[in-house]
């Protein structure tokens, strides 16, 4: 990659940043607070929605976590059916199966209940309802849906992805292992239901890793060059909340205050990155998810501090701002930035998140790098645009193969 490509990427990102001012990034309406999920059926009723598809996964279904919602829907007389076969890293097959159920049952709206996997699967269904003749693969990329999806209610249960407010649906092609995003403001949910109660059964390792995914959103958005006043504010607030509350939620799963603040943090980080993008951490993480099913949050948690360290002075100034915001003091931006990165390593350690990922397979690495480069360049406004060799170095570092 030469200087001309880097210059082209920066011009591309600049044009995109300006173009985004003309898109509708309206946030969802928020229903929030302890036990607020029970109010959702009333909202549906008020909107004259009489039949709704619920998209979730089997773990949540078997845990009985939807029972209160089912009861409340029954009480309001809202018809529903539940698709609960979403897998982590949801696939095109998931979307097509759920879509069939949506049409068969004559539903008119969608409730996404779960982590990013269920919410993204549900968004895929919405996109296919809006565009019945367009295959999921063809909607990959930016602004390919461009048509209103059915009324969409998102209930996040992991406090991580922020999908309840983002324009993205991340889908995996099970045949090619490729994981990619459909990005379109029409996929921003109409309502985000931020109920801390639905997160108290999250196992500690999922609390920690999905929380670090939210931190990755906030940090990657903030250190990129596509911010607005609002995205900066949201990223800073999310970072502060995560530093304060994530470990509380990890150590004491029933701490409702911590759970509540983490729901807000994940949402705010989602608002930040839906406009200001993520970066190289996500591009690398997606390839580990697509190839080896490494959970998204875990991959990001491990990769984040290594990539920040590699950025070096290109991100000192902005990381120093975040460091000061979380209460650190130091003599220079460099010192503060490194303290911030060290603290991310330390948080990971305290929450039993490993320092490195399992090594990639030699036969996969070239394609993984290609996928990461395709995702990141030229779109992501990252502090340092990596070329092929730099990506390879990063893969070696995050797998502990190179110091
Ligand atoms: N759309 C976006 O903007 C966006 C952003 C980031 C990530 N993603 C995508 O989201 C997916 C990851 O989502 P995730 O990290 O939320 O995990 P997930 O949805 O895959 O869930 C992880 C596991 O946690 C379980 N779980 C979820 N909530 C639970 C609860 N309250 N109690 C007990 N168990 C629970 C699930 O059943 C699952 O087994 C990835 O595909 C990732 O690429 C999307
Ligand atoms: Fe993410």
CATH architecture name of the largest domain: Up-down Bundle
> What compounds sit in this structure?
nicotinamide-adenine-dinucleotide, fe (ii) ion
- Assigned CATH class of the largest domain: Mainly Alpha
- Helical proportion, percent range: 40-55%
- Structural domain tally: 2
Principal-axis shape equals globular
Order of strands side by side in the largest beta sheet?
1-9-6-4-2-3
The stretches of 5 or more residues where confidence is low (pLDDT under 50) are none
CATH topology of the largest domain: Dehydroquinate synthase-like, alpha domain
Note the run of SSEs as H and E: HEHEHHEHEHEEEEEHHHHHHHHH
In quaternary terms, these chains amount to single chain
Q: What is the CA–CA distance across the termini?
A: 24 Å
Report mean pLDDT, rounded to a whole number. 95
Query: Which band does the percent of strand residues land in?
Result: 5-15%
Strands, count: 9
Q: How large is the count of helical segments?
A: 15
Would you give an account of this structure?
There is one protein chain. By secondary structure, the protein is of the alpha/beta class. The chain has 2 domains: 3-20 and 203-398, Dehydroquinate synthase-like, alpha domain; 33-199, Rossmann fold, CATH 3.40.50. Helix content is 53%, strand content 12%. It is built from 15 helices and 9 strands. It has helices spanning 3-20, 40-46, 58-62, 67-76, 92-104, 116-130, 204-223, 229-251, 256-276, 280-292, 296-311, 316-325, 333-350, 365-376, 388-398, and strands at residues 29-32, 51-57, 79-86, 109-114, 141-142, 152-156, 168-173, 178-183, 191-194. The strands form 2 sheets. A 6-stranded parallel beta sheet has the order 1-9-6-4-2-3, sandwiched between helices. It has a 3-stranded mixed beta sheet with strand order 5-8-7. Helix 5 (92-104) crosses helix 6. The longest helix has 23 residues, at 229-251. It is globular, with a radius of gyration of 20 Å. The protein starts with a helix and ends in a 5-residue tail after the last helix. 52% of the residues are buried. The mean pLDDT is 95. The structure holds nicotinamide-adenine-dinucleotide and fe (ii) ion (FE2).
């Amino acid at each position: 990659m030469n200087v001309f490509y880097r210059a082209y990427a920066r011009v591309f990102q600049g044009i995109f940043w300006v173009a985004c001012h003309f898109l509708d990034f309206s946030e969802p309406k928020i229903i929030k607070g302890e036990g607020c999920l029970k109010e959702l059926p009333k909202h549906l009723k008020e909107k004259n929605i009489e039949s709704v598809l619920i998209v979730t996964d089997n773990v949540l279904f078997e845990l009985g976590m939807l029972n209160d919602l089912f009861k409340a829907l029954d009480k309001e007389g809202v018809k529903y059916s539940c698709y609960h076969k979403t897998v982590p890293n949801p696939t095109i097959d998931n979307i097509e199966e759920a879509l069939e159920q949506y049409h068969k049952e004559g539903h008119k709206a969608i409730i996404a209940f779960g982590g990013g996997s269920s919410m993204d699967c549900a968004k895929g269904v919405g996109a296919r309802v809006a565009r019945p003749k367009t295959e999921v693969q063809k909607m990959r990329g930016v602004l390919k849906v461009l048509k209103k999806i059915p009324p969409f209610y998102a209930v996040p249960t992991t406090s991580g992805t922020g999908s309840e407010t983002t324009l993205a649906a991340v889908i995996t092609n099970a045949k090619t292992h490729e994981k990619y995003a459909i990005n379109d403001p029409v996929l921003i949910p109409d309502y985000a239901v931020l109920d801390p109660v639905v997160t108290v059964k999250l196992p500690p390792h999922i609390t920690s890793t999905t929380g670090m995914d939210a931190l990755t959103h906030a940090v990657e958005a903030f250190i990129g060059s596509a911010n607005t006043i609002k995205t900066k504010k949201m990223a800073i607030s999310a970072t502060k909340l995560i530093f304060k509350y994530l470990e509380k939620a990890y150590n004491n799963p029933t701490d409702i205050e911590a759970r509540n603040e983490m729901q807000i943090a994940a949402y705010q980080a989602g608002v930040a990155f839906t406009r200001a993008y993520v970066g190289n951490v996500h591009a690398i993480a997606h390839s580990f998810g697509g190839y080896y099913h490494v959970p998204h949050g875990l991959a990001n948690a491990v990769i984040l501090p290594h990539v920040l360290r590699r950025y070096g002075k290109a991100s000192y100034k902005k990381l120093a701002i975040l460091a000061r915001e979380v209460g650190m003091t130091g003599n220079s931006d460099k010192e503060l930035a490194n303290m911030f990165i060290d603290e991310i390593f330390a948080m990971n350690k305290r929450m039993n998140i490993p320092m490195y990922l399992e090594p990639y397979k030699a036969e996969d690495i070239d394609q993984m790098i290609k996928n990461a480069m395709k995702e990141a360049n030229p779109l992501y406004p990252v502090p340092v645009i990596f070329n092929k060799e730099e990506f390879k170095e990063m893969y070696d570092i995050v797998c502990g193969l190179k110091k």
